[in-house]
Specification:
238 residues, mainly alpha, Tetracycline Repressor, domain 2, 0% strand, elongated
């Protein structure tokens, strides 16, 4: 059974106010020699380039031969670092999710209340796309479209990450409802469905250079949250 990549849900604070995401640490006393440092640097460089390629050409555009040509290194070195093509694609996807967590989830998790977290998750997502962290926009939405009809391990991983994002928004909205920060009777599932629909549309608009539509999707997302809130939600800029 393949190991799933780091889940977006693991960043959800327990009790609503603490971020539990921690990076892995080397064992006490471990020393990384020069060769290991070079290997780690090469792996980071390769993975980042693979993510940039995938954001534009899709994960299917990430190949060992293509990376070797782009970066001027041997295919054997890439295979040693990542294994076969499918493993490379899975690690590329998981690497993109790690960046998504840092750029979108962690900033939102720092907010004090569930309603503020929900608002900041959405604001951080729009910032992430607007900054062009990846040239092809949000990898979650891009890969969902790419693998919607391609069953297999990669589709499973894509769906795992997609569902984790939806569940994070849903659980945060539910906490806001339980805390009476949202109006009684608010349909949390419908709210998240609409918020993620605006994101999907905004991602396409950003890639096509339609800034007016991107801005409209962002403003509509803000208004949708405000419409069900008892008080105006603080956004990432609030």
């Amino acid at each position: 059974m393949r190991q799933q990549g780091k889940s977006i849900l693991k960043t959800q604070p327990k009790g609503g106010d603490r971020n539990e995401l921690h990076g892995s640490e080397p064992p006490d006393g471990a020393e990384i020699d020069g060769r290991h440092r070079r290997g780690a640097k090469a792996r980071t460089t390769l993975l980042r380039h693979a993510m940039d390629v995938a954001s534009v050409k899709g994960l299917e555009g990430v190949t060992i031969g293509g990376l070797a040509d782009d970066l001027g290194i041997s295919k054997g070195n890439i295979t040693t670092l990542f294994g076969g093509k499918e493993e490379l694609q899975l690690k590329t996807l998981d690497g993109a999710v790690e960046i998504f967590i840092e750029q979108v989830v962690r900033p939102g998790s720092a907010a004090a209340s569930p309603l503020q977290r929900l608002s900041r998750f959405c604001e951080s997502w729009f910032d992430y796309v607007d900054r062009r962290v990846f040239p092809g926009g949000c990898m979650l939405y891009a890969t969902t479209n790419e693998y919607r009809a391609r069953p297999g391990p990669i589709q499973d991983r894509v769906n795992h990450h997609r569902q984790a994002w939806i569940q994070l928004l849903t659980s945060t909205a539910q906490r806001a409802l339980d805390a009476k920060e949202l109006k009684a009777g608010t349909d949390v599932d419908q709210l998240v469905f609409e918020l993620t629909s605006y994101q999907s549309l905004a991602n396409t608009a950003a890639l096509l250079g339609d800034q007016a539509l991107f801005a409209r999707a962002r403003q509509t997302s803000r208004k949708r949250i405000a419409a069900v809130a008892h008080a105006p939600a603080r956004t990432a800029r609030g």
